[in-house]
């Protein structure tokens, strides 16, 4: 459903039209996981009424908008799902991870990737038709059309797709989730989705922290992660008291400097070592005891920044060994995933066989498909809020999912949701008018104040939050370090920001969306600070560095959790034990190679 | 300064409920103005994903790297085929490169 923007904005709440949509299964976010959820629902039950609510337009939304050059997890012949779990565990320094969740995704993900190939995604194969691996688990694709391909299948397998409708809160009844509320970014209507079960698949949270290129440039969104995924899914759950896990395990990645382009493609796929200003191979020289070039991900992400801090920057990925053919191949990979990086190289006039690619650390993201921040879920992917399921980046406990794992989890969440509907004989709720009234007032308030109101714009508030998080909660400018006092400072100011939400103003519907983006980011940032405070040790340097607790403490070999106390409104922090299910040395990536 | 729209080529996808770029942008940044042409409402908020540039049927949109990050005047233009894409890239020294590959399998 395409929608052209309305010209007349509502001047009072009475001008806002309310639309009610009923569904058996509501999917919030038609991205990678959301599309697979829809297909699975219709496959299992063609009579299930599937509705997708999408902030953008599903053909080019979310993480996959620009395309992909690889599927990072596909299990090769001779390896098992347990091997993938072992590898995944080693990438977070031996855990703790939710091995039960990891294993079930691993058992499912090859099939999801095969679906993509059947639907039209070109997967690169050698002369004998064998899939080409570029690392231990990742395969190369020509994925420029990845998102349109998934979206076409989701469109075929859903009853209604509501594009340009952004979710703002969950619809609740007696403590369970019975749908969601939101507004039309183009039509200015208030949407009420009633559903027997709801899957939240809104991706991760970008823009909690300042990106270092943001100051006085026209590149505020020079981020690696999709900046339009702002963490709304997490925020909606947090506000209803959902338990969140491992939010302190932030994803920070090595990216090309000044232009936040992916680097795994070059370092893994094209075997280009990380070097410092002196030309030394950083990982081999300083991190040999942790595996050198094969060190866990957080070590590889943090190492270039440690070089800068030690006065040995700039740092590079050494591409000077590449032949002309390889450079062409490499550029095609980028064109499939982050095409503007090829433009950036052209704008620098850079020949990468002479000048290696400069690298730096990204701003931190909350992204449960890479690291493991997100909702605490059961095996059916139900959160601790009954009726609310999570898939993809929103679901926690299970890192290294990427495209295949997020797709697989979309299917698993649908199975969980359909089982929940059947077992509980869930019916659609009566509409609670008080809840609707409270939300419609909250949602439209910045717009009704108007753009000329002497208040605060979403951009101002967003920049204030991003600065605060950068400097006090371990952003790039602080080389990811933080401590108890800084986190307390951040939390004090987050409270002040929240008190100032009543001054937010919007001149149009786009600005109204940005106001809700920043409100959601504030809620996620608050929980994140509590998690960072809760882990009084340093377990994953860079991702989580406490300057006041620089060492790993065995007492924290567990999950750090939070939940909002619905009576006091305070965030409470506690821990859950880790359980090893897959045997083996926790730090070793997999079983030794047979030959 | 990410998307740069050539007003001579752009017709706002006349007759369509939404212009192609307006439909494609994951950040809701493109809109058709009173002048019947597409515009980007906030250049700073562009993610450089190039979805608008690929979607434009009249090749009226060019993606630019912000000057603070890269120099004038590099170009990267996509040409969308049925099952393939062709990219042309020119760097600031005038060196030209072309890349063509399949982005969809025949079904
Ligand atoms: C630049 C980049 C490169 C990557 N490269 C690779 C790679 O090569 N290989 C690999 O395997 N993985 C890669 N990944 C990771 C992979 O793309 C993601 O892990 C995965 O696609 C995330 O899926 P998701 O469904 O959780 O989120 P998304 O696909 O981002 O979907 C989230 C959806 O929710 C929508 N949404 C957000 N907020 C709202 C709201 N309030 N209301 C309604 N809808 C909303 C969004 O518009 C979007 O459509 C990459 C990611 C990025 C960002």
TrEMBL record, chain B:
The keyword NAD does not apply. The keyword Electron transport does not apply. Residues 1-35, 36-66 form the 4Fe-4S ferredoxin-type domain. Keywords: Iron, Iron-sulfur, Metal-binding. GO terms for molecular function: iron-sulfur cluster binding; metal ion binding. This is 4Fe-4S ferredoxin iron-sulfur binding domain-containing protein. It comes from Desulfocurvibacter africanus subsp. africanus str. Walvis Bay.
């Amino acid at each position: 459903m395409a929608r052209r923007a309305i010209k007349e904005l509502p001047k009072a709440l009475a001008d806002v039209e309310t639309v009610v949509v009923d569904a058996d299964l509501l999917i919030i976010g038609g991205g990678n996981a959301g599309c697979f959820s829809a297909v699975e629902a219709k496959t299992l039950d063609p009579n299930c009424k599937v509705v997708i609510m999408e902030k953008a337009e599903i053909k080019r939304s979310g993480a996959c908008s620009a395309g992909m050059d690889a599927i990072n997890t596909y299990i090769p012949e001779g390896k098992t799902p347990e091997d993938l779990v072992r590898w995944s565990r080693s990438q977070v320094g031996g855990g703790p991870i939710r091995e039960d969740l990891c294993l079930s995704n691993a058992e499912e993900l090859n099939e999801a990737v095969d679906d993509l190939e059947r639907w039209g995604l070109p997967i690169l194969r050698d002369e004998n038709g064998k899939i080409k691996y570029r690392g231990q688990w990742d395969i190369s694709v020509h994925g420029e059309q990845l998102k349109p391909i998934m979206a076409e299948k989701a469109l075929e397998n859903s009853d209604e797709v509501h594009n340009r409708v952004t979710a703002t809160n969950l619809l609740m009844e007696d403590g369970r989730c019975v749908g969601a509320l939101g507004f039309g970014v183009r039509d200015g209507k208030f949407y009420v989705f009633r559903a027997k079960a709801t899957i939240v698949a809104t991706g991760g949270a970008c823009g909690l922290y300042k990106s270092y290129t943001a100051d006085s440039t026209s590149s505020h969104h020079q981020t690696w992660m999709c900046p339009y995924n702002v963490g709304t899914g997490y925020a909606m759950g947090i506000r209803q008291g959902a338990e969140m896990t491992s939010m302190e395990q932030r994803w920070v990645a090595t990216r090309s400097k000044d232009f936040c382009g992916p680097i795994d493609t070059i370092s893994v796929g094209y075997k280009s070592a990380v070097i410092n200003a002196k030309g030394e191979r950083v990982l081999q020289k300083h991190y040999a005891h942790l595996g050198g070039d094969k060190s866990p991900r957080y070590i590889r992400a943090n190492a270039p920044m440690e070089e800068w801090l030690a006065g040995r920057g700039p740092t590079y990925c050494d591409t000077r060994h590449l032949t002309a053919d390889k450079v062409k191949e490499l550029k095609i990979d980028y064109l499939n995933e982050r095409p503007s990086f090829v433009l950036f190289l052209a704008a620098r006039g850079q020949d990468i066989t002479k000048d290696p690619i400069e690298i730096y650390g990204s701003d931190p993201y909350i992204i449960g498909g890479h690291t493991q921040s997100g909702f605490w879920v059961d095996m059916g992917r139900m959160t601790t809020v009954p009726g609310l399921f999570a898939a993809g980046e929103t679901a926690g406990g299970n890192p290294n999912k990427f495209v295949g794992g997020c797709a697989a989890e979309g299917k698993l969440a649908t199975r969980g949701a359909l089982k929940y509907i059947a077992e509980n004989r869930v019916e659609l709720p009566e509409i609670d008018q008080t809840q609707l009234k409270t939300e419609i007032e909250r949602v439209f308030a910045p717009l009704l104040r108007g753009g000329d109101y002497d208040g605060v714009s979403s951009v101002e508030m967003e920049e204030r939050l991003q600065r605060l998080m950068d400097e006090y909660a371990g952003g790039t400018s602080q080389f990811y370090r933080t401590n108890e006092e800084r986190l307390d400072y951040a939390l004090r100011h987050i409270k002040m920001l929240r008190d100032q939400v009543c001054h937010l103003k919007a001149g149009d519907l786009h600005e109204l969306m940005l106001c809700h983006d920043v409100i959601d980011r504030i809620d996620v940032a608050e929980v994140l600070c509590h998690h960072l405070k809760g882990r009084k040790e340093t377990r994953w340097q860079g991702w989580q560095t406490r300057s006041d607790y620089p060492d790993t403490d065995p007492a924290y070999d567990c999950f750090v959790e939070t939940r909002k106390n619905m009576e006091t409104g305070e965030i409470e922090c506690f821990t859950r034990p880790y359980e090893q299910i897959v045997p083996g040395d926790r730090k070793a990536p997999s079983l030794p190679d047979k030959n | 300064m990410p998307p740069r729209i050539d007003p001579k080529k752009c017709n706002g996808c006349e007759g369509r409920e939404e212009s192609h770029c307006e439909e494609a942008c994951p950040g809701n940044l493109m809109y058709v103005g009173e002048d019947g042409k597409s515009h980007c409402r906030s250049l700073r908020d562009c993610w450089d994903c190039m979805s608008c540039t690929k979607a434009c049927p009249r090749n009226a949109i060019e993606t630019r790297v912000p000057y603070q990050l890269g120099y004038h005047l590099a170009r990267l233009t996509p040409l969308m085929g049925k099952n393939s894409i062709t990219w042309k890239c020119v760097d600031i020294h005038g060196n030209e490169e072309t890349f063509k590959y399949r982005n969809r399998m025949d079904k």
